[in-house]
Design brief:
Length: 269
């Protein structure tokens, strides 16, 4: 017999005892937001899970297992999914289970594990929040490997918004909007397709974090200013083992190496 209390107990039993990981999301020691919800649904008897899906997979259950409700209707055992269907993997989505109208449990990067929160902002800052009630049970969900919350970048050698957002996730910078903000356009960096070019010289939080990491590992000796210039590009090329010429090409071997590292959820520096 299905039980929302058993679903919530799954979270409570692991609060403070597991960590958050998109890479090691199958338990028993770590989960990500969506794998935790899938395993909790299974513990509650609502699903048979061969492999836990992601937030987009959850959106796909609307109409069979889930029905959308308003925020005011939410009660214990309901679910939230943040982000937009079809574009909710990575930091573009989040999910968890309500313990009451004013509190919810979730596996969170911010808390590095399962936590209970009372502020809706913890459902995913700046993301749209949608709310659902479980209406079905016994649904057999088959999700192939690769259906993680992280998703995979195309190895196309182009530093676009997806690659930028994954870097923001790796370094946990504010916003995670896929934009490399306030860059000064030069021949070295003009093919950072995710860049927002201006003359402010303010720089980007994620480039600042990248420069700090590269400096700590001995690859970068330039100014840590959040601006990706020639010295920064050369440092990245050295760290990633590609030709060191200080220029990001329209289709870049360095960016391909970076994308492979990001897909593995582990930078080699």
């Amino acid at each position: 017999m299905s039980s929302k209390e058993a679903m919530i107990k799954w979270f409570d039993d692991r609060q403070g005892r597991v960590s958050y990981s998109m890479e090691r999301r199958l338990g028993p020691n770590s989960y990500d937001c969506s794998s935790a919800v899938f395993y909790a649904l299974e513990a509650g008897g609502f699903l048979k899970v061969s492999y836990p899906g992601n937030t987009d997979t959850l959106f796909g259950l609307v109409g069979t297992l889930l029905k959308e409700i308003s925020r005011s209707e939410v009660k214990r055992g309901d679910i939230f999914i943040s982000g937009d269907p079809g574009n909710s993997i990575g930091s573009g989505g989040h999910t968890g289970v309500f313990k009451s109208n004013g509190s919810f449990t979730h596996c969170s990067y911010t808390h590095n594990g399962i936590a209970t929160d009372t502020n809706d902002a913890y459902m995913g800052t700046k993301l749209a929040h949608r709310f659902y009630r479980i209406i079905g049970e016994g649904e057999n969900v088959e999700v192939p490997e690769g259906g993680s919350q992280q998703g995979q970048l195309a190895i196309d050698g182009q530093w676009g918004n997806g690659t930028a957002r994954r870097l923001q996730e790796i370094f946990n910078t504010a916003g995670k909007d896929g934009i490399i903000s306030h860059q000064y356009k030069q021949p070295y960096n003009q093919y950072i397709y995710a860049a927002q070019f201006d003359t402010s010289l303010i720089g980007s939080n994620v480039i600042f974090a990248l420069q700090q990491r590269l400096a700590t590992k001995g690859y970068y000796t330039g100014k840590i200013d959040g601006l990706c210039g020639e010295a920064n590009v050369k440092a990245l090329q050295r760290a990633l083992g590609t030709t060191v010429d200080g220029v990001i090409s329209p289709v870049s071997d360095m960016v391909k190496a970076l994308q492979r590292a990001l897909n593995a959820n582990k930078l080699p520096f």
